[in-house]
Specification:
The complex is a heterodimer.
Chain A (H helix, E strand, L loop, with lengths): L5 H18 L9 E7 L3 H17 L3 E7 L2 H13 L6 E5 L3 H6 L7 H6 L10 H5 L2 E2 L2 E2 L2 E13 H6 L5 H6 L5 H11 L1 E2 L5 E7 L11 H6 L17 H15 L7 H4 L11 E7 L3 H7 L5 E4 L10 E10 L6 H11 L2 H10 L8 H4 L2 H4 L9 H8 L1 E2 L7 H16 L6 H17 L5
Parallel strand pairs in A: 1-2, 1-3, 8-9, 11-12
Antiparallel strand pairs in A: 3-11, 4-5, 6-9, 6-10, 6-11, 7-8
Helix pairs in contact in A: 19-20
Chain B lengths: L1 H6 L11 H28 L2 E3 L4 E3 L3 H9 L1 H31 L7 H9 L6 H11 L6 H8 L14 H8 L7 H11 L3 H9 L4 H28 L4 H6 L11 H10 L4 H29 L8
Antiparallel strand pairs in B: 1-2
Helix pairs in contact in B: 2-14, 4-8, 4-9, 4-11, 4-13, 9-11, 11-14, 13-14
Chain lengths: ~450, ~300
């Protein structure tokens, strides 16, 4: 083979240079402050956010926001790597499961002074839970988005067919207790002539990892997961044991909730009309509105126990990267995508989640809707009576240690919640006591 | 001699022997150094650090010490993986060989059969895992339905920690018609018919032909499949990640899954790197042992045995 001659080398170089020159044009956003924003979500959510970025760019000619989308499965890792390599975007959406870990490492810009300088920002406008999630050592490090609580979606038609009183009405009378819940779940469960279940009264989370949606049961009986300092597990105490025993019994004693195998492959779903009640987040509303047409459905608060009916709340935080060169422009953008107009569109009109502003949640427009659910007061009530999960820096590690122990309780191989939870405590305490990073 | 060298005209770089060869493997060489050797050395360095993507601190052999002494999940993951390797590798080799023998027959439509058996290995592993989730459903899955027909109550395959390791071993049979079978088939077709004819003249039956001709002639191929099978079985990840997330009660927490969790869920990069090097050493020792033992049973044409 002959080696290329000098002229051929020059020709090749010229072709490459031409290609590069054609690929690069003048910067269309020269002279503007450039902000990068990163988030994940389903296509609908991402379209909405792209639309918000475009609107912001139109209304703010001195700033240009570039929105880049990362698939949910890779998001956390990508974000961590970008932060570690000092290339993180100016503004990011962070799931609260990761927020305590990252804020403690100094990755987020302290927004306290920016918020104090901003005459349009008033902390009192917001639900305290929505602000508390964004605090670290009393300082503000984010603004809450996609915020909401956990409550019950119920099949109204199934309740009527079983001759049961509406749970929302029971809740308003203060009669919606865990005993009543169990009674309704059992009465709505039906079997076919072949012995197979046609429908279940309640769909308990089928994976151990989804236990947080039932945190309300633990709190209703005066139990908790971790102590106040997050140093020790306390779910071996009577309140939590009672709650876990009750949930296991729904499945293996009362048979009013599908087992993991029965529930696999979406055989019994709420939207399919096969479950009477499910516990879920407020953001499920658009999905159910889209999919449910064959029966009536609505929402109601979580049942009451001896210690009340506190439920959990959680959101995502919109944060500014601590190394951003443009904190003011980033703050302006953050304020824009958490503005009243945006919350009105996303949470009041489209019901993506729940508005963080109290006035908006209590407004007539939010409380009265033309489409189900109609008991919108239950959303407000849930958030007003909500508290956060004990999410600390080692959340994923201790919850996985916990999950592995309660697997057998959920699968019905072990029936005594007390024994299982005492074993789980030993494992979780070990994780919590371990030096971080090893 | 020195004089002769002095008068020899100096060759241009491009005329040096090997220059063009090196030039053409440059992209690969670059990729190997940057994307394989570089990360490997980096991970070796990280295995002696406490590193969480933010802070890095040298800790000597602490990551290794904690793995061996302090971490019951490391041992559980290793035990699960060893069980999977011990069951799935022989099962896979025997099944692949059996299918290869069947597909080596001279019957009508053999190409269609070969395609059909190869098809499952083309299915993406996540999709296959979801299909197997249906198969293993203890309430209405096909496996338990068949077992029920013959009067055997099927277990909760993916919810009972006693059954899960077997479920994964059975699932490994999904791809027996894949690359391993093709390699066996190629090996079988490489055995000259004259050997069988000679054996038959000597009075050998089908079994004897298989034992005394096919098996020895296939032994290098079998050895190759064994080495790759052991390495592959230690890397099981996707199925456990998708189907059970390591549960129930960590019964499907395989080595690679636990490594992944440490690296990308708990961000313990130092510990994960140490785990990667422990795995590398385990595979190195196992492969070395297989090479040593292979001298006793692998027959190479033209070799000493």
């Amino acid at each position: 083979m002959k080696p290329p001659k000098a002229r051929q080398w020059i020709q090749m170089f010229a072709i490459c240079a031409l290609g590069m020159a054609l690929g690069c044009g003048p910067d269309p956003y020269a002279g503007k402050v450039k902000i990068r924003y990163m988030a994940w979500g389903n296509p609908e959510q991402l379209d909405l956010e792209q639309h918000l970025c475009d609107e912001f760019n139109e209304k703010n000619p001195d700033v240009h926001v570039t929105f880049f989308k990362v698939p949910a499965a890779e998001y956390t890792l990508k974000m961590m790597l970008m932060m570690a390599s000092h290339t993180a975007p100016d503004v990011m959406r962070v799931d609260h499961y990761n927020f305590p870990n990252l804020v403690a490492k100094g990755y987020f810009y302290d927004l306290t002074d920016l918020a104090a300088k901003d005459p349009t920002f008033h902390r009192d406008d917001f639900f305290p839970q929505a602000i508390d999630e964004c605090l670290y050592k009393g300082r503000l490090f984010g603004l809450n988005v996609l915020f909401g609580g956990d409550l019950i979606y119920y099949n109204k038609t199934m309740f009527k067919q079983a001759g049961l009183e509406d749970p929302a009405e029971m809740a308003q009378k203060g009669e919606w207790t865990w005993d009543k819940f169990r009674e309704c779940a059992i009465k709505m469960t039906k079997k076919g002539s072949d012995g197979r279940y046609l429908q279940f009264g309640f769909g308990a989370p089928s994976a151990s990892s989804t236990f947080p949606v039932l945190a309300c049961a633990i709190w209703a009986y005066g139990g908790d997961m971790l102590d106040k300092d997050f140093k020790h597990a306390v779910f071996d105490q009577p309140g939590a044991v009672k709650a876990f025993q009750m949930i296991a019994d729904f499945r293996w004693k009362d048979h009013c909730s599908p087992t993991q195998a029965q529930g696999e492959n979406s055989l019994y779903t709420f939207e399919g009309g096969k479950l009477g009640m499910v516990f879920d987040f407020m953001g499920l509303t658009p999905r159910y509105r889209k999919l449910i047409h064959k029966f009536d459905w609505d929402v109601c608060p979580v049942p009451r126990g001896p210690y009340g009916n506190t439920t959990l709340c959680k959101g995502n935080q919109l944060v500014i990267y601590s190394e951003t060169a443009h904190p003011d422009a980033a703050w302006r953008f953050e304020r824009f995508i958490t503005s009243e107009a945006t919350e009105d569109e996303l949470y009041v009109k489209r019901r993506r989640c729940f508005p963080t502003r109290k006035a908006m949640a209590y407004s007539a427009e939010y409380l009265k809707s033309k489409l189900p659910p109609f008991n919108n007061w239950a959303f407000v009530d849930a958030v007003a009576h909500s508290r956060p999960l004990p999410i600390n820096e080692r959340w994923s590690e201790w919850t996985q240690a916990f999950d592995s122990e309660i697997d057998n309780l959920i699968a019905g191989r072990e029936r005594d919640a007390g024994v299982v939870l005492r074993r789980a405590k030993v494992k979780v305490d070990k994780v919590l006591a371990d030096e971080a990073g090893f | 001699m020195a004089r002769a060298q002095a008068v020899r005209p100096r060759r241009k770089l491009t005329q040096q022997p090997g220059f063009w060869g090196f030039l053409f493997i440059c992209p690969w060489l670059f990729g190997f150094l940057v994307f394989t050797a570089g990360p490997m050395l980096t991970s070796l360095y990280l295995s002696f650090q406490k590193y969480d993507l933010v802070t890095i601190k040298p800790v000597g052999f602490e990551n290794y010490r904690r793995l061996f002494v302090d971490d019951p999940l490391f041992w559980k993951a290793l035990k699960n993986t060893l069980f999977y390797a011990i069951v799935s590798v022989p099962l896979g080799i025997v099944s692949s060989l059996a299918i290869a023998l069947l597909l080596n027959q001279n019957v009508r439509g053999i190409k269609l059969y070969r395609t059909c058996f190869y098809l499952p290995s083309l299915v993406p592993s996540v999709a296959a895992a979801l299909v197997w989730q249906w198969v293993f459903n203890s309430d209405n899955g096909i496996l338990n339905t068949i077992l029920g027909l013959v009067g055997i109550p099927g277990p909760q395959w993916l919810q009972d920690e006693r059954a899960t390791p077997w479920a994964f071993a059975i699932m490994s049979l999904w791809s027996v018609g894949g690359a391993r079978m093709v390699i066996f088939l190629a090996g079988l077709q490489g055995i000259p018919d004259s050997y069988y004819e000679a054996a038959r003249i000597d009075g050998a039956g089908t079994w004897r032909c298989f034992r005394s001709v096919t098996l020895p002639m296939l032994s290098p191929v079998m050895f190759f499949n064994l080495v790759l099978g052991v390495i592959g079985s230690f890397q099981i990840f996707t199925a456990a990640f998708v189907m059970t997330a390591g549960g129930p009660n960590n019964s499907s927490l395989y080595y690679a899954l636990y490594l992944f969790r440490n690296a990308f869920e708990y961000f313990k990069l130092g510990k994960a790197s140490a785990m990667a090097w422990v795995l590398f050493c385990i595979l190195l020792v196992l492969t070395f042992l297989q090479f040593r033992v292979s001298r006793r049973w692998v027959y190479y044409e033209g070799g000493d045995k």
